[in-house]
Amino acid sequence: MKKGIETWSEYWHLGGEATTHVLCIKKKRGKLSVDEIKETCMAWEWSYWLLLIDGRGEEEPNYSFETEEGDFAACIQMDDVNFK
Predict the structure, then answer these.
(1) ∠ Cα 45 16 46 (to 5°)
(2) How far apart are CA 84 and CA 39, in angstroms?
(3) What is the pTM of this model?
(4) For residue 84, what pLDDT is reported?
(5) CB atoms within 10 A of CB 66
(6) What is the DSSP secondary-structure string of the chain?
(7) CB of 18 within 8 A of CB of 48?
(8) What CA–CA distances, in Å, run from 59 to 8, 27, 55, 56?
(9) 46, 77 in Cβ contact below 8 A?
C-alpha cells in the first residue's frame, strides 16, 4: 500500500435488509488516481468492483462522501455478482 493512502471496509445499507460490502479508500494529500484505486482493490483481492465517483464538485454538499481532508473513493465489491 502506498504511503498516505488509508483503506477500510464497511457495509452500506441499501434499504430494507440489503447491504453491500464497500472498500473505502482515502488519500490525505493530492488526488487518488485510477491506478491507485485499482492497486488497492487488487491488494484486497477483489477481482470485480464498481467505483463510485462524486462528480458534483466541492460547492455542493455531499453527505455520503464526507471526509475531513483529502480525496476519497468508495468501491463496491462485485465478485459475487452473476453477470449472465
Answers:
(1) 5
(2) 26
(3) 0.69
(4) 47
(5) 8
(6) --TTEEEEEEEEEEETTEEEEEEEEEESSSPPPHHHHHHHHHHTT-SSEEEE---S-TTS--STT--SSSEEEEEEE-TT----
(7) no
(8) 27, 20, 11, 8
(9) yes
